[in-house]
Write a structure and sequence with these properties.
Two copies of one chain form a homodimer.
Chain A: H1 6-10, H2 20-28, E1 32-35, H3 47-56, H4 70-82, E2 93-96, H5 98-110, E3 116-121, H6 125-134, E4 137-142, H7 154-160, E5 165-171, H8 183-196, E6 199-203, E7 229-234, E8 247-250, H9 254-266, H10 272-282, H11 286-308, E9 323-324, H12 333-342, E10 349-352, E11 354-355, E12 370-373, H13 378-402
Parallel strand pairs in A: 1-10, 3-4, 3-5, 5-6, 6-7
Antiparallel strand pairs in A: 2-8, 7-8, 9-12, 11-12
Helix pairs in contact in A: 3-10, 4-10, 5-6, 5-9, 11-13
């Protein structure tokens, strides 16, 4: 056979999804698996979504415009106006097939092969996958669990810039650490971009998940950033609608969106039903967001307290997203995550976590970390903590015995 | 502002969609636009699609597995077994967000930046867009309207191969010409791929649209091609479900699909509802395909006869897909298509066609050609022909008068 591409052979699998075969095997054996590995909220998708589809009464499920149904983009703008108080218009939105595609289009539009993007490690695993697809080089500056994964200082970031650096990619709040960056931190990043003429790609997929009364500061609020800020947005997490595959590339800079539209044309259109249902979601009242935020804040509290009560576990505090990235008393998070699925259960139940290695550009730095998504009810999170506590204990005994 | 990427600036807009603003303007002025520009069948999406969504009664619209719902891939395999008599299994399918994404994954999986792919001109416009996204170079061998867009001879194709050629990409039946390649032609391409160790990427999106009793021969039926054949498939055209955004990468070669799965993981999952409804579509009885084929064959007859009756118009015969690519008595298909929207109507109705320029790697070769999709009922196609007849007449008078 002809050879496969180097990029195809080299791109790492998703750390969030690569253990799926082991989870399926565990389930086939009759085990119950608590899925803490994936960022899929468990709250019901708001019923207005289904009502909108019903009401649409579609005869032909046809393509929409490549940039999205005009009324959908208007709904998006209205949502940004009314809920976020950012006065964008429909012309500032390009509808995409989830946040993933928004990021793909951002890379293709703003960056050439070989260009460098500064990211913060640990980072969202799929940035790595998409960098292989687009020929971009990711240069990571590490944030540390001992510092609650705080943004590295401007001086540290500045020192990491090279001649090829063309953008900073910030995930705020952070997937995988749950770190919420402050207005001051976002402004510092903005200043750096302005000083060095860099794009700021701000992935704000989790912006509705901010706790402890913290206000989210969007990169779109940077007055000086109107030309260089590009935001990745998605309906997935906001509305528990990951399967709709609808997101947006958002920017004040319509030149960016004009070019991105050409990539959008090359894939024809985003899903139609996701846009029709999405219009109804974007019109939900403010109470929706309060309910979601309060629900997840309680879960964070339960999980954080539970994890910290396990001997040998360290967990940074977190004020955003729905992830925690604890350090466990283990040497190999991939092996541990697999072992939990293959070799362990408690009352026939086990836990699936995402190994930390996949969230670092240098995988070995994540060997003691795992990402845990708190996308289950509190009592299940409590159960998951107990399973982890006992699992860690037995895993470490077995591994001490072997070596 | 920082500069945009070269690939973003250089990628051409879609010839099928770039005139959308003019069409919207025409509609805003109260004109009716007959859309012959886009490959969107007008038949109703079969009702089983909506029934399946209704019955699914989904609580959380969640991600599916990156490669698709296992039951969906099983339904796909069953469909290939029962309707096409090709004994593939679920492991031979990777579910994608439409055929476009299947092609993106094929390029990323099989080819490295700078690699060349042999294509036949005129070609499907989005191959050009996707080649920019993936850094692939397309090398075209021209097919000619005077030869009914027949496949160039094996010797001609062979002569176009270079050291960098790594694949042949065939669209069968052809978008945009409607040319159906015979079993002998597919075998000739297969032999060439085998001889030179090339991938054969066969885009079979329109395989259900074959007329005059012709049997479609899939590249998947090449006995020797089990390692090098990769097929692009989609539900879009087969079931009038373009907006579902569901397709598949299909191959006997599971190594290809294993690597492609990593790209699939990097974008998380294809749309959930499209898969749920899609399972029901894939289970439709053979009568569905007969009905669709017969409907479109009648339309082809009407359109072909009508176009050939217009003075100065040449139209190759066609036995597949739902496109014709006539040569018109004009010098600039972009200008003509725009003029039809901006400056012309007949009883307040006009026609939108896709300029031929966008379907050639050397755009100037398409200056006298347009692509017409026969995705309207016969009486509307007859009306469209009359509008084109009168439009061409007036356009040419106006343009002779000016120059």
């Amino acid at each position: 056979m002809p050879s496969l591409s180097l990029r195809g052979l080299e791109v790492p699998p998703s750390p969030i999804r690569k253990l799926v075969p082991y989870a399926n095997q565990a389930k086939a054996q009759g085990k119950r698996v608590l899925h803490l590995n994936i960022g899929q909220p468990d709250l019901p998708t708001p019923s207005v979504y289904w009502e909108a589809l019903q009401k649409a009464d579609i005869r032909v499920l046809d393509y929409t415009e490549s940039g999205g149904i005009p009324a959908f983009r208007e709904a998006y703008a209205r949502f940004y106006n009314e809920i976020y108080h950012i006065p964008l218009g429909p012309q500032h939105f390009l509808t995409t097939t989830g946040g993933s595609e928004a990021l793909l289009f951002a890379f293709l539009t703003l960056l050439s092969p070989g260009d460098e993007v500064l990211i913060i490690d640990p980072t969202y695993a799929n940035y790595i996958g998409l960098s292989y697809a687009t020929g971009i080089h990711l240069r990571a500056v590490e944030s540390f669990i001992t510092e609650d994964f705080a943004l590295p200082s401007p001086a540290t970031l500045e020192a990491a810039l090279t001649e090829r650096t063309r953008a900073i990619l910030l995930c705020n709040p952070s997937n995988p650490t749950g770190k919420l960056y402050s207005e001051a931190e976002v402004r510092a990043i903005g200043s750096l971009c302005q000083k060095y003429n860099l794009w700021l790609i701000s992935d704000e997929s989790y912006r509705d998940y901010c706790y402890d009364g913290q206000r989210f500061f969007s990169a779109l609020e940077l007055e000086e950033g109107k030309d260089f800020v590009v935001v990745i947005d998605t309906l997935s997490k906001r509305y528990s609608a990951c399967g709709a595959r609808i997101g947006a590339l958002v920017s004040w800079n319509t030149d960016v969106l004009q070019v991105a539209l050409k990539w959008a044309q090359a894939r024809l259109a985003p899903p139609t039903l996701g846009q029709i249902g999405g219009m109804a979601l974007l019109a939900l009242p403010p109470e929706h967001y309060t309910y979601v935020r309060e629900t997840f804040q309680r879960r964070r509290d339960v999980l954080l307290e539970g994890l910290r009560s396990i001997p040998g576990v360290t967990c940074a505090s977190s004020q955003g997203a729905f992830y925690l990235m604890p350090e466990l008393p283990i040497e190999d998070s991939d092996d541990f995550a697999k072992w939990m699925l293959e070799c362990f259960d408690m009352h026939n139940t086990t836990v699936m976590v995402a190994p930390g290695t996949g969230f670092f550009t240098q995988p070995e730095k994540g060997k003691r970390l795992v990402r845990i998504a708190y996308v289950l009810e509190e009592n299940l999170l409590e159960q998951a903590v107990e399973i982890l506590r006992v699992g860690l204990n037995i895993y470490n005994r077995e591994h001490t015995a072997i070596f």
